[in-house]
Amino acid sequence: MLLPDELRTALDSALSRFSPQDLSQAAEQLTERYRAHDPGGAVPFMRTPQDVAAYAAYRMPATYAACTAAMGRAAALAPGFAPRTHLDVGGGTGAAVWAASGVWPSLEQVTVVEQDAKVIELGRRLARTAPSTAVRGASWRQASVRAGLDRPAADLVTMSYALGELPERDVPEVAVWLAERAALVLIVEPGTPAGYATIAAARDALLGRGLAVLAPCPHGGPCPIEPGRDWCHFSVRLPRTSLHRRVKAGTLGFEDEKFSYLAVAGEGAAAGAVPPGARVLRHPGKRKGVVSLRLCTPGDGVRDVIVSKRQGEVYRLARDVEWGDAWSH
Ligand SMILES: C[S@@+](CC[C@H](N)C(=O)[O-])C[C@H]1O[C@@H](n2cnc3c(N)ncnc32)[C@H](O)[C@@H]1O
Fold it and tell me: In the chain, what are the helix, strand and coil shares in percent, each to the nearest 5?
């Protein structure tokens, strides 16, 4: 999944102020801090303008790709949903805002809540080049998110790679706050056990308030994945730009970003929403004449299913299905 040309060009120009060495060093330090993972810690992960630039260079393409993938799956299940207003919380340099404008061109008004002024400065600079008038005209609000903060009404509310940065005890309350009066809430986190745990805590809180999961889960029951043994996550492939390769040591021309996500529908989006049937939880095993699928099912937990060539049309469909797709056959 490629960054939009305008975003790539704006990033290149914003990053040209820094030497590749400074960016690589900042990227390494950022990775270390994220690895040490101190949710809600007093010191922010991004501390200097170099850190912010390094984040945009080496993480924004991946978070943009994960947001686009998760939004695409939610949009596929709510075909009538055409949001006009979008609130992005912990918006960083704007990955989710760019992604949403690609998935929902109906968006007219965008608000980003972000706690860090340096991050807002870069996000705003990038957004000025966006083809979407909603992104270009986004209102960037410097604030720390908490449940009591006054929340602008928005049809679409997103929080990507940010909920897990809050103290664990705040996650349920903030998740419920995100969902207040929203037609669709989408939370994206890294596809790690910790990211999935954040998503699971948000899911429990939202279902506890009577909201309906749209994706990825095909049911509103307890998650059948046993904590500690596995975690619900998906993957999106993105090409590494030359800049990305320079900042992030590595020789591959692409990378696979793993992400966990949750889309919860309020009334507007739920009208006409199609339940996914089942969700494909792994890369399907494709051998001659046989496709094996690990599925999360509505009534039967996680099931391994074999589809064979003898099943004709269902087999042909299974040949094309990918990890993360809905499966209704
Ligand atoms: C890992 S970045 C993710 C940025 C962006 N959403 C993305 O997907 O690329 C997390 C962002 O959340 C912001 N953040 C963390 N805690 C926050 C809080 N309590 N209130 C507002 N923003 C917060 C950070 O400043 C940072 O910009």
Answer: 40, 20, 40
